[in-house]
Design brief:
2 copies of one chain form a homodimer. Chain A has about 450 residues and is an alpha/beta fold. Chain A has 2 domains: about 325 residues, BirA Bifunctional Protein, domain 2, CATH 3.30.930.10; about 80 residues, Anticodon-binding domain (Rossmann fold), CATH 3.40.50.800. In chain A, about 35% of the residues lie in helices and about 20% in strands. Chain A has 15 helices and 16 strands. An 8-stranded mixed β-sheet of chain A has the order 1-5-6-11-10-9-7-8. A 5-stranded mixed β-sheet of chain A has the order 13-12-14-15-16, covered by helices on one side. In chain A, strands 2-4 form a two-stranded antiparallel ribbon. The longest helix of chain A is centred in the first third of the chain and has 20 residues. Chain A is elongated. At the A-B interface, α1, β1, β2, α2 and β3 of A face α1, β1, β2, α2 and β3 of B. β3 of chain A pairs antiparallel with β3 of chain B, so a sheet runs across the interface.
């Protein structure tokens, strides 16, 4: 058989495609369950879209800058290559484009406002690079409506996000930072910056964290031709953050800029922050330095950071947009959504040693097999316990009890059950932590 | 704006990629939860592998006949195309090859016997074809051990499968049919068929359902040169099915063929069927016509069918194999596994009109907003109910109550909650089914 060795393919990880051992996967599953339960507790419905979309659909939403994986059939024959009916397929790079396509396609069968959650993998066809994921989970909620969408949801989104981070039992505080694009844009317009320059100015303002204020002023003057005073004024907003909602609004007003859009943005921002004022201090703050690069955000914008490690980047984000489905149907459909970067945050926990796996499985009880004659009573006992709702493994062979106990130990199974066997006509259960072993009845023993 | 119309991409379904409306997705999620809970109740641990494997890894397990999707980076530049370090990636076509790779790669970090479950999408890069899925869910459990694996698991697998079909509340009976490759192969060897012809003979025997007994005999004689009597004897086994375990074994013995492998197979099959004899009559039967085309099965084999629609094909299957990881590491690792074709079965239910969606979401309670002044009390009420574990939607604006009730109606939300508002200083709750409205306390009302 040894000569077969040459045909052996060495199994190895693929860069950018995370995979966990069972003891970590148990925790990842708990995370999924926790996130799902919060989403559902606010009335969001699950949808799941295919992993692929037609490439044209992805491109219609302006994905030209995204790293996309396209699919090809390995066994495609010449004939089918000519078959134009098979559109070019590509893996989705986020869950927003699929949502836009889904809402457009199923428009007549949905109830609006449409509140959906979606927890799926997305793919980025990037070159392999250390620390960069090419496949990862996003957990999104969005609410989409026809023509207009109440401000209520702008406050609900950060609250949902906050509740999720609470539920994940993280060792570090996560802070949700909120701003409003109308405040930023209105402020810049009020300063006298021309409307057609706003996109360029905000693109540069978004770099403050990376390149620093001085370089931002330099780029605003050198690249865009703003005079120095105007450039410096543009930056003023980005220094306003934290405090009570009222104080934050007053700090903006103190800058002395008058603009209708700015006023509207401040009213919206106040509503949101005020609504969230019952949450612990510092968990959710107003932060006017937030820009969110994406052009399509038009109102509330938010980002979540690990407070002790902001350099790691956002572990959640979201915002309001004026029109989700513009490229698919002729309807104005505003929405607001958040996305939680589950894989990013989870891998940060794993890499930082913040997770302490306790159990290799979710098995509660191991039922031992004393001898091959006692197989049936062991099996029945396992069934009784299982019917009571416990996760139960029946040990698979009648080896020495010591070996069976050691299996339970290794897997972190908290209880071992001993059905009656020769000489002993009662059931017993052993608590693996306290080492206490007691007579017990499988029908009603309380663990 | 109308002139933008030309740029609109018409959103449409992609052939072979199923997608459900929210009211069906709720049920699909219940299925996933039910399957997962059964898997866990038998002590199987979740793992999840990436959607892709290196193409070489997929091919190492002899996937040459499988329809595979390979990935390509849309934005790959010339430089990276030359970069050989980026191995060719492909979407997995089942969950068995990924398991083999996973076990080999993480061998030193796993506890054996390794019992894992995996519920993931798989892809088949087929030409679009009506009724053929190109992306679908499989729900698998396998147990893998080093060197040998107790027969206990051969009996556990069909039991797990049976319990799952029970939990899914199917309108039609599912029957699990069990055989053993050793019985089939031993019987053919005992008839005097040469070992090197067994694969060809079983491949033809596997076609009985499709082409009928006469054509099978014809192919065995014409194509393989068996004499007619031998060809007919080969078929005798396939007529034996059902009855008690003992009867089934006796029926095989009555054929008068002696062979050690056959004996061993009968002993194994008896153990499995006898172990499952507590299940309702006809839910699990011995059926010696089962062949399972896949070469790697070596012992117990099983298939599950919708009794009223066997033509639909198997909705679950599985079996025992001698060596899972042969192409990856130099260890003998036998295993047994089952796979439930969730998407196949679910779409059969949808297409057949067997599902009656009741609710568009899992929201339990809609809290109304009587006026914009009562927003805060509505929000607090929603939070109280949510903290009690209910899924609660707060209606998003203070429109007419009639409109809010109609929203609850359309979404199938069972209860509507009225917090105090002008003139009314008590909470009330309305049962949408009975239409009864009562005074209630959000802190402790029992729904």
């Amino acid at each position: 058989m040894k000569n077969k060795k040459t045909s052996i393919y060495k199994a190895k990880a693929i860069s950018g495609y995370p995979e966990w051992l069972p003891e970590y996967r148990v925790i990842e599953l708990q995370w999924f369950d926790a996130i799902r339960s919060v989403f559902e507790s606010y009335g969001y419905s699950s949808i799941e879209t295919p992993s692929v979309e037609e490439l044209d659909a992805l491109m219609a939403k302006g994905a030209s800058d995204k790293e996309i994986y396209t699919l090809a059939r390995l066994q495609a024959d010449e004939e089918s290559k000519k078959d134009k009916s098979d559109a070019r397929l590509a893996l989705h790079f986020d869950l927003t484009v699929p949502l836009a396509r889904y809402v457009s396609q199923h428009f007549n069968n949905l109830i609006f406002p449409f509140k959906r959650y979606q927890m799926q993998r997305v793919w980025r066809g990037e070159r392999p690079q250390k620390g960069r994921f090419r496949e990862f989970y996003q957990c999104d909620i969005d609410v989409i409506n026809i023509d207009n969408l109440p401000l209520h949801f702008d406050a609900e989104m950060p609250r949902v996000m906050h509740e999720i981070y609470q539920k994940l039992n993280l060792p570090e505080k996560i802070q949700i930072r909120i701003s409003n694009r109308k405040v930023l844009v209105g402020y810049l317009l009020g300063l006298g910056i021309a409307e057609d320059m706003i996109a360029d100015v905000t693109r540069i303002l978004d770099k403050i964290e990376k390149i620093g204020s001085d370089n931002v002023v330099k780029q605003l003057t050198d690249d865009l031709g703003l005079d120095t005073k105007l450039a410096e004024q543009s930056l003023a907003l980005s220094k306003i953050r934290g405090g009570k909602a009222k104080e934050l609004i007053n700090a903006v007003k103190a800058l002395g800029v008058n603009n209708d859009l700015l006023e509207q943005g401040l009213t919206e921002l106040f509503f949101v922050l005020d609504n969230l004022s019952d949450l612990p201090d510092g968990d959710v703050i107003g932060d006017l330095s937030i820009v969110r690069g994406l052009d399509y955000y038009t109102g509330t914008i938010l980002e979540a950071y690990i407070v002790s490690d902001t350099d790691f980047g956002a572990v959640g984000s979201g915002g309001r947009y004026e029109d989700l489905t513009g490229s698919f149907i002729n309807k104005k459909m505003p929405g607001i959504g958040i996305s939680i970067g589950l894989t990013r945050l989870f891998s940060w926990m794993v890499d930082g040693g913040h997770l302490e796996p306790q159990r290799f499985s979710s098995t509660d009880i191991l039922v031992v097999q004393s001898s091959s004659e006692s197989y049936e009573v062991s099996m029945q006992t396992a069934n009784i316990l299982r019917n009571r709702g416990f996760n139960v493994e029946l040990f698979h062979s009648a080896v020495k009890i010591k070996k069976q106990l050691s299996y339970a130990e290794k897997k972190g199974i908290p209880y071992v059950w001993f059905p009656p066997f020769e000489g002993v006509d009662v059931h017993e259960v052993k608590d693996m932590k306290s080492r206490v072993q007691l007579v017990a009845d499988p029908e009603n023993y309380i663990f």
